[in-house]
Design brief:
The chain has about 260 residues and is α/β, with parallel strands linked by helices. It is built from 8 helices and 12 strands.
Length: about 260
């Protein structure tokens, strides 16, 4: 049996507004900069670039433009990067890389590109044998067994993809989680909790962790830890399973072992 050597940092999103003064706009990866730089310490020392995967195309942006904006931010952090080929991810490019970063955007579009370019298994094998994996939003969600707990409206890819993704973690995640206090009480539509409870009703015995903006999961081998930053939007992280909703009381700066969920 091969021992899993997974090494992943999974961000709820690239921006977080918790505890920021009114009117201050969050910058890309600002809230997690310390974590990201520490995560890629070896890559920086070895001068190995990380591969950025722009396939999620937030707002429909062109892949190359997405990469260039991310590359600029990573360079500011001392992290070299190269763009994934428009034709997919190969074992050869990952073999020479210091890690892989899959960014956020439209989750079905991301998954469809990875599926049709035969990249899923290549990424899965590389990460299972130790390649550092940084995910944000959609890039975090595709590490789950499926993308069923994404927040995105359907796009063209929804008509033709299947929903199974990387399966690098054993439970579902809902990124950008919003608790009931964050919804306008006059709004009569479904809250995030109702949507996740509905998901669990249709998917029995599947656990879903609601990951607030400003939170991340750190996966080391078979252990998974929940990290909470100063810019988190909440510290009572929910876990949904069947008809139950439980909460993990988080403390800023202290890792919570959530391996039993994943």
């Amino acid at each position: 049996m091969t021992t899993l050597q997974k090494n992943m940092l999974l961000l709820s999103g690239s921006k977080a507004t918790g505890n920021l003064p009114d009117g201050v706009k969050p910058g890309f990866l600002d809230w997690a900069e310390v974590w990201v730089k520490e995560f890629f310490t070896q890559s920086i020392k070895q001068q190995k670039p990380i591969v950025f995967v722009p396939y999620a195309r937030p707002g429909g942006v062109i892949e190359q433009d997405y990469f260039l904006s991310v590359q600029q931010r990573l360079t500011q952090m001392g992290i070299a990067s190269i763009c994934a080929s428009e034709h997919g991810i190969t074992a050869e490019i990952l073999k020479e890389a210091g890690g892989i970063f899959i960014g956020g955007g439209h989750t079905p579009t991301l998954l469809y590109k990875l599926q049709t370019s035969n990249s899923l298994e290549t990424i899965r094998q590389a990460v299972n044998t130790g390649l550092p994996y940084l995910g944000s939003s959609a890039g975090t969600l595709i590490t789950c067994p499926t993308i069923k707990t994404n927040n995105d409206m359907p796009g063209p890819a929804n008509n033709i993809i299947h929903l199974e993704s990387l399966g690098l973690v054993g439970a579902q995640i809902n990124c950008h989680y919003m608790d009931d206090s964050m919804h306008d009480p006059k709004h009569q539509g479904e809250t995030r909790d109702l949507r996740l409870q509905e998901f669990c009703a249709f998917n029995p015995n599947v656990s879903v962790l609601g990951l607030y903006e400003g939170q991340a999961l750190r996966v080391i081998g078979n252990q998974t830890y929940l990290w909470t930053s100063e810019q988190t939007r909440g510290t009572k992280t929910p876990v949904f399973r069947n008809k139950l909703r439980t909460e993990i009381q988080c403390t800023i700066g202290i890792a919570q072992d959530v391996s039993d969920i994943f």
